[in-house]
């Protein structure tokens, strides 16, 4: 931990849904759910109005509709999210050269390099308030919750304490007091499985965890995980804010409208995905040692299996062969709705060996099998929420579509709530609208 509260964590509130409400005046103050809109869709983000009905991220869209049927269910506009994120990261980088983005909607900022007169609590509190105001101004009104603490861990915990649109600064010396009454899941790395394992031994809060010896935690969770939790339960975290975060893995996955039951088809899909992963590795001059497959079964149970090579590879043949081998150990007879292949343990080199020429020949022979499947990633021509433009009526967004008809609400972020009109799907006056310059990715 640092001597001063000089690590700031900023988290944009209900980011995707907030962008939609900003750009669609008729949805402001109303429940909005962004994610997959089909029967197998999953919620990416829910507005706070929708959360009051129990809608949460990662929930199936089907359940979200049953809980909040009157919400607006939108497919998402990633160009708008990327642009808003770019603006936010620009504001953060203008105050400190050490900004570590974690995703489109959150980042750490090192205040030791922000040029402040001092790092006392009143100073960093005032600075954080000004930063939140600058983010809102730059993004047209998006709010952010901010936490400031003596470490990344404490700053991230603090940013969750007063959502939405909140600010919490944790004074030095009060970190353990803050953590003790909280559930163990507040600690990074304590997911449902680890929390359940700890619960079975009577560990519910951080205070409970703090009372357990290092030896006992290592026995329960393994050396790396147990040692990490032992330190974090005592608020011990010295990780620096790193402006450039290297990719830890490269992966490709696809969700399918109809459950897959044909093993040969699954193997063909894994082979194709392995080829895409390998191509991305080679494009960035990377290789990896660990090959992982992800399989989501018909009942939403998600399984993963991995294997590790002695040296890193970027070859399609090797990745595909290992991925298919991992599939053989799984029971997929009930049907599979998602398949994915990933490579981790990344390196910027490949082990030279005497058989490299043979391996290259094998790669050439690994011809991806042509398969025709419908994936959940495909969007209908007129997806709910997408931006459109009419030759006479101007810009708007798709309210809904079906049976040859597209219904559009004509409004933008700078207009009042607009009228709703319907058109034939093939109306030549109606077209998708994409900004001329969407901006570069923020991180």
UniProtKB/TrEMBL annotation:
Residues 7-191 form the UmuC domain. Mg(2+) binds at residues 11, 105. Its main location: cytoplasm. The active site is at residue 106. GO terms for cellular component: cytosol. Monomer. Poorly processive, error-prone DNA polymerase involved in untargeted mutagenesis. Copies undamaged DNA at stalled replication forks, which arise in vivo from mismatched or misaligned primer ends. These misaligned primers can be extended by PolIV. Exhibits no 3'-5' exonuclease (proofreading) activity. May be involved in translesional synthesis, in conjunction with the beta clamp from PolIII. This is DNA polymerase IV. It comes from Nocardioides panaciterrulae. The lineage of its organism: Bacteria, Bacillati, Actinomycetota, Actinomycetes, Propionibacteriales. The gene is dinB.
